[in-house]
Amino acid sequence: MSQNWELLLFPYQQAAKEWKVKLRGIRKEFQLQDEHSPIEFVTSRIKSVASIQEKMKRRNITPERLTEDMEDLCGLRIMCPFLDDVYEVVQLLRRRNDVEIVSERDYVNNEKESGYRSYHIVFRYPLQLVTGQREILVEIQIRTLAMNFWATLEHSLNYKHPDVFPPDVHQRLQAASETAFKLDEEMSQIHHELAAADADADEATKDDKGEQ
Ligand code: 0O2
Ligand code: 0O2
């Protein structure tokens, strides 16, 4: 069966655009209220035709089952400043009524063998098309800046040099992922301490004013 890829992928492109607006809107809302935003930035990608075809082969996915069985045709990525922010974004998504969550995979606390960490959510999104409403699957990967740094470089190293990966490189990449995670933990700790110091200072100011 020959596929009209442009037509098939159009709803996914549309969904990616709509979701970038929604997610960047969340960041803006926090900023307008002078609050810490758990979202640093958002990117998206539509799976390439070559990558779709490779995955169809690898997973034995038929063209008829493609849009149900391939959950990441539309992929969004949310980068968070701190570790806690990843779970705050997960909560924000769970509370929304414009999505129906289909699955969640926590690779933050259960890292993959490669060292990969991210929180993956797949949800069903009702898209409004000229032909009516259509529910499509969207995947969101939520990760910290440090996790993104590691995953971006590891992906590019794997992609560029797939055949010359000696076992010790895998180990070194795993170790690098551990280092990135320690950095995340330390930055989160500093963030908590500063937030607590801020709260104490606010309290002291209130007390001072109360005494006057
Ligand atoms: P802003 O003001 O930086 O948030 P588009 O959706 O058209 O705006 P496009 O071309 O589809 O963007 O690209 P993509 O990959 O979806 O998103 C790119 C966005 O991610 C850009 O935002 C980049 O600034 C942002 N981005 C990518 N890498 C980084 C990074 O390391 N740090 C930060 N802070 N942002 C990054 P915009 O659109 O320029 O808007
Ligand atoms: P793309 O289009 O390049 O983003 P599968 O897709 O079959 O490999 P599965 O079980 O469907 O795996 O999904 P999984 O493992 O939950 O998520 C797959 C996606 O997570 C990948 O997309 C990557 O974006 C990311 N990912 C998973 N493991 C790793 C890893 O070890 N390193 C890096 N850098 N990223 C990883 P694809 O398949 O690369 O597609």
From TrEMBL:
Domain of life: Bacteria
Coiled coil: none
InterPro entries: GTP_Pyrophosphokinase, NT_sf, RelA_SpoT
Pathway(s) this gene product operates in, as recorded in its UniProt entry: Purine metabolism; ppGpp biosynthesis; ppGpp from GTP: step 1/2
SUPFAM superfamilies in the record: Nucleotidyltransferase
Ranges of residues in domain RelA/SpoT: 44-165
Regions that span the bilayer: none
Protein name: GTP pyrophosphokinase family protein
Source organism per UniProt: Fructilactobacillus myrtifloralis
